Amino acid sequence: MPAWAENLRHLFVLCLLGLSLAGSGSSAQTSDLVSSSALRVCADPANYPMSTKEGTGFENHLADMVGGKLELPVQYTWYPMATGFIRNTLTAKKCDVVMGYAQGHELVLNTNHYFTSVYTLIVPKDSDLAGVTTLTDPALKGKRIGIIAGTPPSAHLARNGLIARSKVYNLVVDRRYQSPANDMLDDLVAGETQAAILWGPLGGPLVKSGYPGLRVIPLVGEERPPRLFFRITMGVRQGEKVWQRQLNSLIRRNQDEINTLLVEAGVPLTTDLGTEVLEISK
């Protein structure tokens, strides 16, 4: 082999070794960012029924459970769940986990999902809509339906000719000052609307805790897109594979306890493909 070729081969090997070492060092550094003295949770302080500064949300209870399994106290970094949430909490290294995050979002590294849920139709229990199970039901024609702007069910309402009479509520708000979901349910109780559509983990617990006259109907029968079910994970920083695997193991070993916690809160759980409601005994 010519001397220049031998030198080039050595240079190539050294470059590969350098990249390998750099990658190893980067992995070690990102792992070191996770606190070993506390479960540091990124959360919205006013996002009931998910999380609250008072600790009354089901994600607070889940954090307490996870902290207990890890034998770590729970510490919070509070920030409104709006634009900049991940950048100002998880990415800024002020905390190490978001308790609830939709699977597949590139801003975080997702753990395995620990539940699947679906959008729900909410109606008065004594309403003529109490038997409706899909948004294609003719009984919804001419009804005024509450909907959060920009959410997937909006497309179903439009396709079924229900959007013109719908009452639209803002999607992105500071929950410390506004609560579109509660406003929607209050309007339903007052008769301003005849039905409401809410994400199950939001609508189910709200109805259970404060609206006994309403019925929550999981929309598992919709066959056309966009899909109305989503798998929910915990979110950690990109690159935190060791931490991700630790949480995956915890989720797997404690899935039954997690299911019970969610069902007690009022969260409707479905199969992974969102086609059937899971019946979980409390």
Q: Which labels suit this protein?
A:
D-Maltodextrin-Binding Protein, domain 2, disordered N terminus, 2 domains, alpha/beta, 12 strands
Can you describe this structure?
The structure is a single chain. The protein is of the alpha/beta class and 282 residues long. The protein has helices at residues 3-32, 58-70, 85-88, 153-159, 180-190, 200-210, 241-253, 255-265; strands at residues 39-43, 46-47, 51-52, 74-78, 97-102, 109-110, 115-124, 145-148, 167-169, 195-199, 214-218, 229-236. It folds into two domains: 39-115 and 230-265, 3-Layer(aba) Sandwich (D-Maltodextrin-Binding Protein, domain 2), CATH 3.40.190; 117-218, Periplasmic binding protein-like II (D-Maltodextrin-Binding Protein, domain 2, 3-Layer(aba) Sandwich), CATH 3.40.190.10. Helix 4 (153-159) links the parallel strand 8 (145-148) and strand 9. The protein contains eight helices and twelve strands. The strands form two sheets. Strands 1, 4, 5, 6, 7, 8, 9, 10, 11 and 12 form a ten-stranded mixed beta sheet that branches. A two-stranded antiparallel ribbon has the order 2-3.
Care to give the gist of this entry?
The protein has 282 residues and is α/β, with parallel strands linked by helices. It is built from eight helices and twelve strands. The chain has two domains: 39-115 and 230-265, Periplasmic binding protein-like II (D-Maltodextrin-Binding Protein, domain 2); 117-218, Periplasmic binding protein-like II (D-Maltodextrin-Binding Protein, domain 2).
